[in-house]
Design a protein that fits this description.
Helices cover 44% and strands 15% of the residues. It is an alpha/beta fold and 253 residues long. α2 (47-53) links the parallel β2 and β3. The protein binds glyceraldehyde-3-phosphate. Pathway: Carbohydrate degradation; glycolysis; D-glyceraldehyde 3-phosphate from glycerone phosphate: step 1/1; Carbohydrate biosynthesis; gluconeogenesis.
Length: 253
């Protein structure tokens, strides 16, 4: 039985004060980590404060990106060493906004995934198709390719700890959610690809989240699907009450 993981991705939102208020509000109302994993992936300037406020609570803190090198002449970048030192435990890698706007490649995503494991961070690896790819029946091929390239070179132990977030790009921030069946179909395909690349144990262990306009109103149906083990949530993770409802839903699955 895989434990659900509900992760909020705040993207480039909130002030420092709002971030701290959020953490103070939710930290005592979250279910225990043994029941469901809850994570907030916040902008870099808020990470230190969020780790401090949520110490000894079930809420884990993640970053939304990082560089794969430990240090060096990479102006504006943040390294895995810096994140680890802060007490961050998760990192989103290869979000479609990073792939599209900042031109991140599958190769860079793969390097970042390796760097995450080298530094004890759990990677949440994002994959997903565009509307064009879906309409051209290229969804499975595209998503499978992204998964295989992202995990290239990981050993079985590492691969089984990866969290994959399946996020159809056409459903992100649009209010248009993939139906629970559509989402599950792709997640099942991802699990099969993991079985081919590794084995049944790895395929069974990997948590696969769905992301794309997840909200309290649709989360139960999505999480009840056989191959969906959580959600990566943008907009609906920004309000404390809404985030708490999403995590609560994860507890019941
Ligand atoms: O990382 C989160 C996704 O991009 C989904 O964002 P959304 O829930 O606002 O559609």
């Amino acid at each position: 039985m895989r434990k659900q993981v509900i992760a909020g991705n705040w993207k480039m939102n909130k002030t420092h004060t709002e971030a701290e208020d959020f953490a103070q509000t939710v930290k005592n109302d979250l279910p225990a980590a043994e029941q469901v994993e809850s994570v907030i992936c916040a902008p870099f300037p808020f990470l230190q404060k969020l780790v401090e406020v949520t110490k000894d609570t079930p809420l884990e803190i993640g970053a939304q990106n990082m560089h794969y090198e430990e240090k060096g002449a990479f102006t504006g970048e943040v390294s895995p060493v810096m994140l680890k030192e802060l007490g961050v435990t998760y990192v989103v890698i290869g979000h479609s906004e990073r792939r599209e706007i900042f031109k991140e490649t599958d190769e860079e995503v793969n390097k970042k995934v390796h760097a995450a494991f080298e530094h004890g961070l759990t990677p949440i690896v994002c994959v997903g198709e565009t509307l064009e790819q879906r309409e051209a029946n290229k969804t499975m091929e595209h998503v499978e390719g992204q998964v295989k390239e992202a995990l290239e070179g990981l050993n079985q132990q590492q691969a089984s700890k990866v969290i994959i977030a399946y996020e159809p790009i056409w459903a992100i921030g649009t209010g248009r959610t993939a139906s629970a069946e559509q989402a599950n179909e792709v997640c099942t395909h991802i699990r099969k690809a993991l079985q081919e690349k590794y084995n049944g144990d790895v395929a069974e262990a990997v948590r696969i989240q769905y992301g794309g306009s997840v909200k309290p109103a649709n989360v139960d149906e999505l999480l009840s699907q056989s191959d969906i083990d959580g959600a990566l949530v943008g907009g609906a993770s920004l309000e404390a009450a809404s985030f708490l409802k999403l995590v609560e839903a994860g507890k019941h699955e």
